[in-house]
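To assess whether ligand presence alters the predicted conformation, the chain was also submitted together with NAP. Input:
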Amino acid sequence: MQIPSEMRQWVLARRPVGLATEEDFRLETAAVPEPGPGEVLVRTQYLGVAPVMLRYMTNNTDFERDLEIGDVMHGRGVGLVVKSNNPHWQPGDLVYARLRWREYAVFDDDPYYIPMRMGHPDLKWSYGVGTLGNNGFTALIGMREIGRVSDGDQVLVSGAAGGVGSNCAYVAKALGAKRVVGIAGGPEKCQLLTERLGFDAAIDYKASGVESAIDAQFPEGVDVFFDNVGGELLDQVLARIRRHARIVICGRISEYLKDPADYHRHRNLYRIGLMDGKLEGFFVDDYRERYPEFEAVLADWIRAGKLVPHEDMLEGLEQMPAALIGLYDGTNAGVRLVRIDPTADQGR
Ligand SMILES: NC(=O)c1ccc[n+]([C@@H]2O[C@H](COP(=O)([O-])OP(=O)(O)OC[C@H]3O[C@@H](n4cnc5c(N)ncnc54)[C@H](OP(=O)(O)O)[C@@H]3O)[C@@H](O)[C@H]2O)c1
């Protein structure tokens, strides 16, 4: 394969104040890196976006390296190995790793990159940034390891039409849940939940009467709440949990743009003690040793038709800032990702 001498990449142009704008990023041309000893050169196939990336731009996470102005934006994606000076990787291998927002990337054995060989080249490569990558792993960890979903559970999911949420009903059902209800913004997304994403019912949080809608869907209370949103919605659900409920704290996108002083103060936390429940957060990367196991489970469910990935695909590296910004105004439905290599998946 012919490797060009130059590539495009997005760098941080300035730190955002609140929600990022396109001006916070700059598209640059750079030399395609030559892999050094132990290094692997990949051509980026697909890149994902996630709400947390806004926090990367202000160095506001414990788990990602700090970004200086002018640094290439952090991000994960699927790459096709095109050159390798590393015995573990051969040209033609597919890897899911921290590749950053660029058309070519190098990585080595440094665990920072979290390189995972994709074990499902027969399935769509793009699934590596969605259902067979962080989004699917997060849904599986949250439902199985944290929420302990099992036969007969009645499950509620917030942020249900998003990247993680769009996998949640399928995963919960595959684990034995009796009923899964999703919360999303607007009638179109609610229709998507029930028609395409495997939910039994949907609640529109932008309409009035969210609390009475939860009451109507869960007359006996909620067994498992998989929460992507946090804030006041979490409080409203806490008021409606059943005995031995499990509250899975996956994310809290409703608060990412707020000053910590303005975070919601939860009045109903006492219900955890009252109902002998459990409330627990988790971080997907803490399970990195088990990614191949999770990938195998999820790939089996896809092949068996138990899990149907829903992708929201944009085309071209130039779309990266818009793809990220759109997560905060709810324009995505399902796993939002960007195809970087127009020939991606042709080797499948
Ligand atoms: N624990 C972990 O290891 C882990 C891993 C991955 C992701 N996460 C977290 O999980 C959550 C979902 O991530 P994702 O990648 O799947 O994102 P996403 O759901 O694909 O994108 C964001 C969606 O959230 C909703 N949203 C945006 N602003 C909101 C607000 N103020 N209130 C309520 N909903 C809002 C929008 O949907 P609507 O149109 O329905 O409002 C939007 O489409 C995030 O909080 C993320 O940080 C955690």
